[in-house]
Each structure stands twice: as C-alpha cells, then as structure tokens.
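Dear Dr. H.,

I hope your travels went smoothly. While you were away I took the liberty of generating a structure for the chain from your last submission, since the lab meeting agenda had it listed for discussion. I wanted you to have the full record in hand beforehand rather than looking at slides cold. The sequence, exactly as received, is reproduced here:
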Amino acid sequence: MNAGAPTQLPLDLRHRTALGAGDFLVASSNRDAVAWLDRWPDWPAQGLFIHGPAGCGKSHLVEVWRARSGARAVTAQSLAGANPHDVLGTARTLAIDDVGRGGDETVLFHLYNMIAEREGSLLMAGARPPADLEFELADLRSRLAALPAVAVTEPDDALLAAVMVKLFADRQLDVAGEVIDYLVVRIERSFDAARRTVARLDERALELGRAITVPLAREILSL
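The corresponding predicted structure, in token form, is as follows:
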C-alpha cells in the first residue's frame, strides 16, 4: 500500500453502516480528526469540535467516538425546547452533531456546563469551526471557541475510490476498476453521494439483469 492510500481505523464501527459494517478508511482528509479521537480520553480540554463540509464524514466520526466512549448522541436541532437533564441523564460523555444548524443555545450552554461539572467529554460537529458560529449567547460563543477544533475536508480521489470499492463489496459486487475510476471523477465529492450512486447502480443492474459497467454508470449519472 502506498503512502497516500487509505488505511483502516482500528475502532469498532458495528453501529455504523454508511461506509460498511466494519471498516473506516483513514486518509489525508480525515487523519487529523482520527488522531484526535484516538487520543480520547486524554484530550487537553473537556471537548473537541470537528468541522467540515456536508458529506465529508463528520457524522461517521461522531458515531465512531460514540461507540467507543458510550456517549449519548443527539443533533443540535433535537435540543430545541429540550430539558438538558433529560438529554444528558447520568452520562458523562455527549456527542452533538450539526452544531450551528438550529436548536436551542440555552440548552446547548447548559449541556456544556453539565459536562464540565461532571469532568466528562463533549464531542461536537458542524459545518463551520466554532469561532465562526454566530450564537447570540456570548458565554456559549467563548466556551465553544476555546475548544480544540479539527477540520475534515472533502475526500480525495484515493479515499473516494476506496469507499466505493467497500460499498460495492458490502453488496457482494465485484466491480471493475475502470468503473470506479469513471465514477470517482464524476460524482459529488462526498460519502453520501458515493453511497447513493452505488445503490442506484446496484438497483439498475438488478432491474436490467446487467453487470455494472462503464456504460451503465454513464446511464445512471445522466439521469
């Protein structure tokens, strides 16, 4: 395997299916974030903020950490009108996804403080780094801005190709490399797009009784 090829993250992903049942692929786009997750619980602060564009794998990383830490996991939107004590219960670890896309600032602020009081850990993920989030609560802004933040970028060609190979393999499909090469440079650069494309190809091939080839891939992408 060359230096730029994806490697496997040695964490349990039994609860996550977006990239397959048991593997997570590590490449330049997510390596820094993975290194931070591997350091837990020895983080220098009570939390970590992962940020990056939609479809880059942030939610997958949140799930990796949730499975490893036993954390409760919620989305920021689900906090609207929630009771912080009901959200956290007796837990000392919490994962919050989609931070910055709605929700309740006051609830988020209380959850942050509750985790701090319990000397626990908080993992947050969103599209923008915490310093760029336009929260009205100044105390919440300052607390989140003080958290270590790590970026996850769009997958490069090698990672996207490896993900597609894995997605096809999960469906017991052995697809030629030329099909993977054709798709990688033509689909949206996200794991979600890769998953949708593989599903559409599989369904269309079954419907037509055809193998998955470059002509079939061209047909699917033209729809």
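Two observations you may find useful: The chain has two domains: 7-151, 157-222. Residues 131 and 146 are 8 Å apart (CA to CA).

With kind regards,
E. W.
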